[in-house]
Amino acid sequence: MQERRINDSIDRRHHDQDRRSSNVVWQNSEITKDHRNTLNKQKSAILWFTGLSGSGKSTIANIVEGFLHRNEIRTYILDGDNVRHGLNSDLGFSDKDRQENIRRIGEVSKLFIDAGVMVLTSFISPFIEDRQFVRNIVKTHEFIEVYVKCPLNVCEERDIKGLYARARKGEIKHFTGIDSPYESPLNPEITIDTSVSNESHAANIIISYLINNQYIQLQPANDARQSLLQKLMPHRKSVFCGI
User: Fold this and answer.
1) pLDDT, tens digit, for every residue of 92-106?
2) pTM for the structure as a whole
């Protein structure tokens, strides 16, 4: 199946190249990504949240963005469900459409990086090849893969929207984890097991990574890292409602 998907990808991209105009030339701008990052006092990057439906991707992404926003970090969230209401409303859930879904999101995320923004993407993005495609179109340090790990049975127990139950009944086809595979990341920058960590603890791991790797700089007056740590309850069990 994976070999067929790769061949389909190659055929489609060759077809896309055939449709491109040979007269299209890249237009350079006087103001660059470096200028925008300097203005924003941050390093733009993609926080790419991947994991099964119900693992907690959206929940954690929203907490992280809230912290960053309160500390004057320019951000934007691209959420899997939201994007399918507009930009990707023409796509279904076949392997081919899932691939195109991630390709488009990768290109949009690249534009956000160029704009000097920290973009958080919350997508199941089940295939290694597709996530690698996004990693390859930006610089090495600009792609931060966050594997939101959670056993399938735990995700099914959460099932806030009842999607797993419908998939088990055959009402939803190509549902990741049921009749469509999920390929776990091989070397993610961050791994969070939400079956043992609550959302606050998970968010703190990501925020600490951004600070320690100098993606963001908090002014002493705004350095909320310590207050955040004090508010965390790492031993508290909580139910993730995001997907």
Assistant:
1) 888 899 899 999 999
2) 0.81
